[in-house]
Amino acid sequence: MPHTKPLLSIVTGFLMFAMPVAAQEVWITPDTPFVEIDVNNRFFVIERSADNEAVISAAFAKTSRPCPPFCVSPMQVAEGVETVGELELLAYLENEVQSGAGLLVDVRAPEIYAASTIPGSINLPVNLLTVADNNPFLIPILMQLGGVQLDGGSWDFTAAKDLALYCDGAWCEQAPLAVRNLLTAGYPAEKLYYYRGGMQDWLMLGLTVIAPE
User: Fold this and answer.
1) Residue 161 and residue 146: Cα distance in Å, rounded?
2) Assigned domain for 51 exists
3) Lateral strand order in the sheet of 162-166
4) pTM of the model
5) How confident is the model over 75-119, as pLDDT tens digits?
6) Closest Cα to residue 103, out of 75, 71, 144?
7) Is 212 inside a domain boundary?
8) Measured distance CA(162)–CA(97) in Å, rounded
9) Which of 64, 105, 67 is nearest to 84 (CA)?
């Protein structure tokens, strides 16, 4: 899916090539052994690990973090914004992301994104979406996402892309904050999706992750 240069310069990252495991025994659903997507001329196979002894990494196995800031997010992060699970996110990748109508957005810091992320995602750190006069990135980002700034400073988001946003999990405040910032900027709630489970749930299910080359 094509993006213009300014957005690409903000969300740079290279995605690894993946192939399905032969004789896969751990399917995603009874009817879906794996999901294949082609994003920006990069081909990915998303599947679950076939290793029945695999466990989640220690960082995501941790159950207790100080709150604030690591408080539990509500299921509905904002009115009109749909919360999705893994199957809905896979369908979103197959449809909206592959067609170019939508983006899957990892809002974590670049160095965290670089270590491990969901195939087909881009990195758009939450601090770049801060709604503040001293944030020089917000207006160019909104324009690259398809927004049109009108006279007087208001926005027309009719042609803007759908966005599915996520961070580390239900205890991570970055994705909810990114959603609220976009709503404050005028982005339509019906064009936003919140993957509440984030990386923790994705890894817990043994689904494919990638890292930069």
Assistant:
1) 6
2) no
3) 82-84, 192-195, 162-166, 102-106, 121-123
4) 0.87
5) 999 999 999 999 999 999 999 999 999 999 999 999 999 999 999
6) 144
7) no
8) 9
9) 105
Alpha carbon distance 24, 33 (integer Å): 7
Reading the block at residue 191, the tokens are 């064009």
Cβ atoms of residues 26 and 32 within 8 Å? no
Q: Is residue 211 in some structural domain?
A: no
pLDDT in tens, 139-179: 999 999 999 999 988 999 999 999 999 999 999 999 999 99
Into how many domains does the chain fold?
Answer: 1
The residue among 7, 201, 209 whose CA lies nearest residue 100 is 7
Give the residue from 175, 183, 198 showing the smallest Cα distance to 79: 183
Which residue range forms the structural domain that includes residue 105?
A: 5-11+71-203
DSSP secondary-structure letter at 94?
I
Residue 53 lies in a domain: no
CA-wise closest residue to 102 among 188, 173, 174, 36: 188
Give the integer Cα–Cα distance in Å for 90 and 164. 11
